UniProtKB/TrEMBL annotation:
This is DNA topoisomerase 1. It comes from Sandaracinomonas limnophila. The gene is topA. Monomer. Residues 129-573 form the Topo IA-type catalytic domain. HAMAP family: Topoisom_1_prok (MF_00952).
Amino acid sequence: MAKNLVIVESPAKAKTIEGYLGKDFVVKSSFGHVRDLPTKGDKAIDIENDFAPKYVISTDKTKVVNELKSLAKSSEEVWLATDDDREGESISWHLKEALGLKDDTKRIVFREITKSAIQNAILHPRTIDMDLVNAQQARRIMDRIIGFELSPVLWTKVQRGLSAGRVQSVAVRLIVEREKEIEAFVPQGSYKISALFNLPGGKILKAELPKNFETEKDAMTFVEACVNAEFSIKSLETKPAKKSPAPPFTTSTLQQEASRKLGYAVATTMSVAQKLYESGRISYMRTDSTSLSQEARDKAKHAIEANYGPKFHHARQFKTKNESAQEAHEAIRPTDFEVNTITGDSREKKLYELIWKRAIASQMSEAQIDRTTAQIAISTSKEVLVASGEVITFEGFLKVYLEGKDDEEEDENQDMLPPLNVGQILDLNELRAAERFTRPAARYTEASLVKALEEKGIGRPSTYAPTISTIIKREYVVKEDREGKERSAKSIVLKDKKITASTNKEVFGTEKAKLFPTPIGTLVTDFLVENFDDVVDYKFTADMEDEFDNIAKGKLSWTQMMKNFYGDFHKTIEESKSISRSSVGSARELGVDPKTGKNVSVRLGKFGPFVQLGDAGEEEKPTFVNLDKSQNLSTLTFEEALKLLERPKLPREIGIYKDEAVIIGAGRLGPYIRFDSKFTSLPASYDPFTIELKEAIEVLEQAEKAAEADGLGQFENELVSTGKGRFGPYVKHAGKYYSLGKGETLTSITLEKAIELILAKRNLEANKFLKEFPENDSIKVVNGMYGPYIQIGKRNVKIPKGTDPHSLTLEDCIKLGEDAPTTKKKK
């Protein structure tokens, strides 16, 4: 047996570290946390005894703990090497307690998994920092108390099965309040003036009026004045400017940029970054610091000068804005700046390159730019058109990287201007006054929600991803695409001295991967804001984070913090018993139906909000109609409810086509046309309650043509086609659907690749055991009646949707096993 036992929390991390230490060291994994509070709240925390927690060894970790305990007894020295943050410190403390280790057991920390970092950590051990442990302990116990005391209030006053949480409820509140802001927003129209001028050599000069006209009349007056106007260059002004690089990534900025540039969900970004860290590619990925060590800056300098030249290097140290950030920690960076790309998994490759570019750019020179502004005089008006552009005179950091933006509208006036002269007469090609509408604040994406939480001081790097996952999993929030709506927009065009006015249709409000509150999410938020404002108050939640920071710094006792919090909180819980359930907004009486004389109300049910005609207990059963997705329980009017009740019931038969009935229905995924035993989604431009047979036939024919257009070819005398469904892009063959593999898109898939996919799926279904891992015979990937799953001992672990079972590694299986709830194996 080796003299030294090193314990980490991840098997992948253990494998990497063991390669850097000599034969006297053996590295083992705890597979994450080994102890936690028991599931029953009344036995987990002794509130009367200074909130003393009762920790228990997790049932699935008993074997791991026993093995580590045996190894620890036979080793001369034990080294606790979990992650260098509060959670990592907490895992080390729980290991010490569970294994019966001494208080002076050596604790080593490192921010990157490289040979030098590991060996340096061995030379500079410390003991467990109980201040960090207590900060994590306070967070865990506070969240447990809030959840276990507040959730039952929701069960009795709102609806069974609901839950509340200190950070999750605040995150939902942000989304709910943004949605209400959008619903209350009234767009204001105005007219934006733009012009195109013909220049020698076929070039075009774009210009705009720096103000908008509020009315169509004012816009028309201006355009009419320009019919016989002469346009000339009034002035040219060129100013030098500089652009500075963004700081290297923190956890939140990495999540935001990976969302913008790579389309990754927050949880995906953290999962991929974890793998890069554990394989020694990047520094620790949970950090709120933007600083780099002197060693890292020196390595960056060498890489920049070698690849781009000395003039591209500019040393700088970024000051972290977050006061609670630990400056001793570093931003996320590559461990080796000489390596600008890696091989292997495409997601890891893309994220690594993003991290490398951002870190290397932070140590590069500013970009030098000449910004030119041309003012264009109009002979018949006092107004002046403006054209602007810029020329990059020295690329600097732009040679490597430019930070993305959340604003969906790109700046159209950053092109390089063609050569111009003061006094130059311009040839007008077209002048346009286009109606534009103000827009409400954008709905949150995962990345912009993280940014909002960070700006308000809510949560910390380790909490953003699990918070978002929780509110989606509990169905307080949905992440989805939504089609836009049509509206009329007027335009006035001056061309060849003729004015043409027209009204066009434009689509607005199209949403891509945005976060929408569900009706129950809105209802719970409204209830908590009204009755437990402190718990969902932004400042209160941020102040709690500051107190956790003070505990970590040894400035505050965690038990005192809990006492300060619990008194008022528990009093509010007790007072909530007097809240009348009828006062909670889960049901609203809207009025009396003039046709039937029955009450009309809007309510929240198991499957969402609905309008009810009539009352329970009456001789005739009430009528129920679901709200449209765009309608809200709290804002639905009596008139809107009557329109819903007057609609024909679905499914409804609208006629016969090719001797088959055409039926319009509505399912979980939206309205559809059922014809010839097939279902075709009904486009959003059609109303399922008013669509006629002729229109339905057009939709069916278009769908048939689209299927033929998407065809890749024939396989086994059957068409192989592609499409996009609820679970992403797929290949369709012989009535079966096959999800695309990693790295494949609808544009890249070929017939040959599609056939490979089909055959692989068949092979998957034909074999009972897909994969067995020789490293651990009790872990297998199995194909079951309801799809593939992971078998870990006697546990069955579901494989997440979109995950290719063939690509799973042993580490992937173990990680999924750690994160998944325990389910009984089917007999």
